[in-house]
Amino acid sequence: MAKKKAARKVKKAKKAKKGLKKVAIAKAKKSARKRAARPKATRSSRPATARKSAGRTVKKAAATRAPAAGRAASTRVVKSASAAETRVAARAPVPPKIAPLTPAVGEPAPDFALQDERGNTRTLSAYRGRTLVLYFYPKDDTPGCTLEACAFRDASSEFDALAAAIVGVSPDTSESHAAFAQKFSLPFTLLADPDHRVCEKYGVWREKNLYGETRMGVVRTTFVIDENGRVAQVFEGVRPDGHDREVLTWLRSRQPAPSIAPSGY
Question: Maximum Cα–Cα distance for the chain, whole Å?
């Protein structure tokens, strides 16, 4: 009896399980049919709120792109304008540098009052009544300046015979001049112009290019000043070697020719 009851229970359980499976399968088929019958979503079938949200997103993107495009366009305009200005500036002629004015022949020589190698003050007016060879040089005890000074030293007696005084000027100090004159036994005066004011007056303080470096300095120049304090001759772009002979030749050319007495009959 007990066995029969157990068998019936097992049979009922099997039937209940089959019924659940059938219900689950039916539900699955029904949901599949509903999905198949549902129309595909389109832009018009979306809810109005979704469409509005999408529209706002598009507008924001467009608004963001517009200023960026405007800025890029304005940058291009500025760059093109700058390039045009640069081209115009490049084509514009560059004004030449105005060189310092050198006293011309016939003009009064600029006056000066400078200390010599002994610390005494020398003026231009002190040389009135005789010819003055005033030579400007860059620096004491350098090869070119030493060559020029020693050449004037060796020819000093010839300058004395022509009543011409020799005076050298550079931006060195009086102490430097004293050592330079003593070292090479220079018999003539050296004037110190450390602030290069007199060099500027005579137009010899100029821009120079030395070993690829541009800087200000003395351009080697010699002035011959006559007995009345006027510029009689200017030697520019002086080369130290042989310059003394160049000045002597010019001084001798100004000497009056010796008069020849007529021979008696």
Answer: 199
Q: How far apart are CA 161 and CA 53, in angstroms?
A: 111
Q: Is the pLDDT of residue 140 over 90?
A: yes
145 in catalytic set: yes
Helix, strand, coil share (%) of the chain residues, nearest 5: 50, 20, 35
Residues whose CB is less than 8 angstroms from the CB of residue 182 and which lie 6 or more positions away in sequence, other chains included = none
- Over range 81-95, report the average pLDDT: 50
Q: pTM for the whole thing?
A: 0.62
In angstroms, rounded to a whole number, what is the distance separating the alpha carbons of residues 1 and 183? 151
Burial of residue 226 (CB within 10 Å: 0-12, 13-18, 19+) is middle
Q: How far apart are CA 40 and CA 238, in angstroms?
A: 101
Q: Which amino acid is at 60?
A: K
Catalytic one of 145, 164, 186, 192: 145
Q: With beta carbons less than 8 A apart as the criterion, state whether 171 and 193 touch.
A: yes
For each of the domains in the chain, give its residue range(s) and CATH number, in order of start: 113-253 (3.40.30.10)
Q: Which residues lie below 8 Å from residue 45, measured CB to CB, with a gap of 6+?
A: 39
What pLDDT score was predicted for residue 139?
A: 97
Q: Residue 192: which of 240, 121, 143, 101 has the closest Cα?
A: 121
Look up residue 228 and give its DSSP letter: T
What residues have CB less than 8 Å from 108, skipping those under 6 apart? 229, 230, 231
Buried-exposed string 94-114: b where 16+ CB fall within 10 A, e elsewhere: eeeeeeeebbeeeeebbebeb
Tell me the pLDDT tens digit for each residue of 194-253. Answer: 999 999 999 999 998 877 888 899 999 999 999 999 999 999 999 999 999 999 999 999
